[in-house]
């Protein structure tokens, strides 16, 4: 089973650079093309939030047309830039979002690896929240299937990552979430986005993966800063492979073309 995670499109944002403006929708098109050229193709795609930058319905619509063109099952969840109402309006007809209730949390049951999608949106804030209501829902879902290997997706990382600027915008109440996650040993990983950088952490007796954006990155700032500037490191897709012989393995796949070296065969060991 192969899952592709793409995250943080921010469609509608145009970023000025010394070489002219870059429309993030154009970057997203390149990432989607990269995804459609992956071989083997993923079984499904997880879109882990910040689809639109400003919440404009036109931006959701063009992002949806692009996602539909991939031709694979895909599943969306809210980020801090998203509105639940817009996500419902655009994606409810696809049949997986909860039709009622306050939050857009749901499980995906039809694959060997069970996926739990958490809603960490705190309306009007860049930081996230996993409140007691959402935690109770998660605890119930985990308790009902303790034997099924599970991967959790959530937009905001629930832990500090030694990135002070982004740490201030993490998912609040993460310590309570950690207690629940640590209590259920069927969880093989927790995957997030939001920071626009790649990070991996040992957290709550599992692995926390943070996936870079499909369109732009933020600089690696490990000291406190007042602001953080966008930059264009290679855009990324994270792949999760679930196999009976490997368990959960993750890779980043970088969008763009890079020079290939010529094959030199198997290197000869140094004689000493
Ligand atoms: Fe984002
Ligand atoms: Fe975000």
TrEMBL record:
Keyword Methyltransferase recorded: no
Residue ranges annotated for the Calcineurin-like phosphoesterase domain, each copy included: 1-197
Membrane-spanning residues: none
InterPro entries with a match to the protein in the record: Calcineurin-like_PHP, CNP_phosphodiesterase-III, GpdQ/CpdA-like, GpdQ_beta-strand, GpdQ_catalytic, Metallo-depent_PP-like
Keywords of this entry: Hydrolase, Iron, Metal-binding
SUPFAM superfamilies attached to this UniProt entry: Metallo-dependent phosphatases
Pfam family, one: Metallophos
GO MF, any single term: cyclic-nucleotide phosphodiesterase activity
Family indicated by similarity: Belongs to the cyclic nucleotide phosphodiesterase class-III family.
Name this polypeptide is given: Calcineurin-like phosphoesterase domain-containing protein
Organism listed in the record: Kiloniella spongiae
């Amino acid at each position: 089973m192969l899952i592709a995670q793409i995250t943080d499109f921010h469609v509608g944002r145009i970023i000025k650079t010394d070489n002219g403006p870059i429309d993030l929708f154009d970057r997203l098109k390149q990432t989607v093309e990269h995804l459609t050229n992956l071989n083997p193709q993923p079984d499904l795609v997880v879109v882990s939030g910040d689809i639109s930058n400003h919440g404009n319905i036109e931006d959701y619509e063009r992002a949806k047309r692009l996602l539909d063109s991939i031709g694979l099952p895909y599943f969306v969840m809210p980020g801090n830039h998203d509105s639940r109402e817009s996500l419902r309006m655009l994606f409810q007809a696809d049949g997986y979002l909860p039709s009622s209730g306050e939050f857009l949390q749901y499980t995906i049951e039809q694959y060997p690896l069970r996926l739990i999608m958490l809603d960490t949106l705190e309306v009007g804030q860049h930081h996230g929240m996993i409140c007691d209501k959402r935690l109770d829902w998660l605890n119930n879902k985990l308790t009902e299937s303790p034997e099924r290997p599970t991967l959790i997706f959530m937009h905001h990382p629930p832990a500090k990552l030694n990135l002070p600027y982004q740490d201030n915008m993490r998912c609040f109440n993460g310590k309570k979430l950690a207690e629940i996650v640590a209590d259920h040993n069927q969880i093989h990983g927790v995957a997030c986005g939001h920071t626009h950088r790649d990070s991996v952490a040992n957290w709550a007796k599992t692995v926390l993966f943070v996936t870079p954006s499909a369109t732009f990155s933020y600089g690696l700032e490990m000291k406190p800063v007042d602001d953080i500037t966008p930059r264009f490191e290679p855009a990324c897709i994270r792949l999760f492979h679930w196999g009976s012989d490997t368990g959960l393995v993750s890779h980043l796949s970088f969008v763009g073309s890079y020079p290939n070296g010529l094959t030199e065969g198997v290197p000869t060991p140094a004689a000493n």
